[in-house]
UniProtKB/TrEMBL annotation:
InterPro entries: Aquaporin-like, MIP, MIP/Aquaporin. This is Aquaporin. Aquaglyceroporin that may modulate the water content and osmolytes during anhydrobiosis. One of its GO terms (cellular component) is basolateral plasma membrane. Residues 279-288 have a biased composition (Polar residues). It comes from the Eukaryota. Belongs to the MIP/aquaporin (TC 1.A.8) family. Residues 279-320 are annotated as: Disordered. The keyword Membrane applies. It comes from Tetranychus urticae. The gene is 107360036. The chain crosses the membrane at residues 29-50, 59-78, 113-133, 153-176, 188-209, 239-260. It is found in: Membrane. Residues 295-320 have a biased composition (Basic and acidic residues). Pfam families: MIP.
């Protein structure tokens, strides 16, 4: 009886899952949400470990954890959504035609939701450890989840820091285009890029690079009892200028600098390009869950062939 029930459940869930995931928007949303969750949770958990052990944060270790999270997330989502995992990247890619603007809202919603739940799950599995160093849910304890400026760093310096560092990140995305860097190396390439930027630009603003990485966990800390002060830095300045505005501005400057001064051909990539790159999003229009890639390509080619009018058909029509 139990075996029969399992077969019935499997027979119901699999077709339902296939139908659900055959929707392009759904697949992109789930990919961006899951990828952002993995990326952010990997770094936040490292922060908890160092705080709980009352050790000074090892910048390289934290950067490495974010990098490993990026490696997993990009590898998993590149073929589905283009592995943006970052609202600043999505808006920058839309500005140069690499992502339709109509798809930006569900990309950004997925990224912020994924980052929010990464903070929630980090708290859920580490709450006993967190209580050892922050039993009263203080603003200083919220630094496990969110970023704050380094000691003595002003808002202006932190703002410029994030414009430059996020600009380098978006610049590196377009630099990865072309035959010089095979697509299979993209996850490792961006792991090294993210790790390097986090190490180099860590002091001033905590190497945010990603508005979702900061705002998602910041909303979590506000909801779960850290108070509204989490929306300001420790000196009382409004941190959203650095955590949200600066990364978006930097990402836009990075991609447009590359297009205007390096290589304008990378803009307006065709969505039908099967060699999906970071920042692109490619899902075959007749995608079927479980179908091998070569089968998908065969079906797309067959569909195109069917739509082409045969010469004899045209002749018959003219005779009529």
């Amino acid at each position: 009886m139990a075996k029969l029930k399992s077969h019935l459940l499997f027979g119901y869930l699999v077709p339902t899952s296939k139908k659900l995931l055959s929707n392009r928007v759904t697949r992109e949303f789930l990919a961006e949400m899951t990828g952002t969750f993995i990326l952010v949770a990997s770094g936040l958990s490292a922060h908890v470990v160092y705080k709980a052990r009352k050790q000074q944060m090892d910048t390289f270790a934290a950067a490495f954890c974010f990098g490993v999270g990026a490696l997993i997330a990009i590898s998993a989502t590149l073929d589905v959504s283009g592995a943006h995992l970052n609202p600043a990247v999505s808006t920058a890619m839309a500005s140069i035609g690499r992502l339709p603007w109509k798809r930006v809202p569900h990309y950004m919603a997925a990224q912020y939701i994924g980052a929010f739940f990464s903070a929630f799950v980090t708290w859920l599995i580490n709450q006993d450890a967190i209580l050892t160093f922050d039993p009263d849910y203080t603003e200083h304890g919220s630094a496990v989840y969110v970023t704050f400026p380094g000691e003595g760093v002003g808002l202006f310096s932190a703002f410029l820091d994030q414009v430059l560092s996020t600009g380098i990140l978006s610049f590196s995305i377009l630099a990865a285009d072309g035959p010089k860097l095979p697509r299979s190396f993209h996850p490792l390439y961006f792991t090294l890029v993210i790790t390097g930027i986090v190490i180099s630009f860590n002091y001033n603003a905590g190497a945010i690079l990603n508005p979702a990485r900061d705002l998602g966990p910041r909303l979590f800390t506000w909801i779960f009892g850290y108070g509204s002060d989490v929306f300001m830095d420790l000196s009382g300045c409004h941190w959203w200028l650095v955590a949200i505005i600066a990364p978006h501005l930097g990402a836009l400057l990075g991609v447009w600098y590359y297009i205007l001064l390096i290589d304008p051909s990378v803009a307006y990539e065709k969505e039908s390009d099967s060699n999906t790159k970071i920042g692109d999003s490619f899902v075959p229009t007749n995608f079927q869950i479980g179908a091998p890639k070569n089968q998908e390509n065969h079906e797309v080619a067959k569909l195109d062939h069917d739509h082409k009018e045969h010469p004899n058909d045209a002749k018959h029509k003219s005779d009529d």
